[in-house]
Amino acid sequence: MIERGTLYIVSTPIGNMADITLRALDTLKAVNLIVCEDTRRTRGLLTHYQISKPLLSYNDVNKEARTPGLLSKLSTGQSLALVSDAGTPAISDPGFYLVRQAIRQGINVVPIPGPSAILAALVVSGLPTDRFLFVGFLSRKSGRRRTQIRSFAAERGTIIFYETALRLPKVAPVLAEILGPGREVVLARELTKKFEQVVRTDLENLPEILKGVPLKGEFVVLVSGNTQ
Q1: Which parts of the chain have pLDDT scores under 70?
Q2: Domain ranges of the chain
Q3: Percentage of the chain with pLDDT > 90?
Q4: Is the domain defined by 6-112 classed in CATH 3.40.50.300?
Q5: Which of 72, 101, 85, 82 shows the shortest CA–CA distance to 39?
Q6: What CA–CA distance (Å, rounded) separates 42 from 60?
Q7: Cα-Cα end-to-end distance for the chain
């Protein structure tokens, strides 16, 4: 009987290359194949650490088509590493699909923990950390987005989500309208990088504050919970 391989969920740096763990490097060197969102991003990381391994792109467009082949490799004894563009895979990430299918096939799934933008932002936010709700990316459609925000209006823990720089100015006034202007809000961008920035304000003043914040890339947005 052929022993099945292992699917390793490998966390990679969210910015600063030095944040990768020794265990993550050892795992990337040992596996047969590295499954990643963008081969160019991952190849840059591997080149930095002088690791040479075959790469396969895995994203929302091709995940269903590529998963059977990956499960076949795992079933015949090969071990794979799943990485995202940055941080911990499978969180608001297509890798979740592969993890779920691997578990259903009885394949061993092992976490190789490390950097996470969500937790990095939370621990420097100054907002309560004992309870929090992560909601991923808000919808691109305004109506659905408003429904999402209303759905967590009563949440007592810190609310965390990702938002793009282009949409954030549109989202800011809706947050104040639905959640209330007095809620604390924290924006985190470029975490662990040279131009890391953490901005703390309230929802009432957020639209004005955004005028002085470089609107580039993605933000981690944290909003205080409902205390009423």
Answers
A1: 1-2
A2: 6-112, 117-223
A3: 91
A4: no
A5: 85
A6: 17
A7: 60
Domain 117-223 grouped into CATH 3.30.950.10: yes
Name residue 25's beta-bridge partners. Answer: none
The token duo for 50 is 């002088």
With contact defined as beta carbons under 8 Å apart, do 74 and 80 qualify? yes
In angstroms, what CA-CA distances link 215 with 17, 91, 100, 120, 135?
Answer: 23, 23, 35, 20, 21
Contact 108, 6 (CB under 8 A): yes
Joined tokens for residue 127: 């907002």
Q: Which residues contact 220 (CB under 8 A, 6 or more apart)?
A: 117, 118, 120, 121, 160, 161, 162, 187, 188, 189, 191
